[in-house]
Amino acid sequence: MAYEEKLKPVKRSHNIVMEDRGKLTVSGVEDVSSFDESEIVMSTVCGSLIVRGSELKIDRLSLDTGDVAVTGLVTALDYEEVAPSRSLWARLFH
Description:
94 residues; six-stranded antiparallel sheet; elongated
């Protein structure tokens, strides 16, 4: 097996499981950018995910496995779309 093959990043799957709007489990998380009682911002393999609610707490965070568990009242789940990177010429002449 070639050395380059061993270093290929593994594509994680992204799943969200919510139980009664009080417990949220997210997989495929790469980073948690910010969090407080009303909002948690995390980067996932499918884009940036914003969890809004009240009394939000991160119960479990494992960036090694990409899993996050949140408790509290969840009122919204929003994804921020990541614009694809375009070349300088494409931006100038479009």
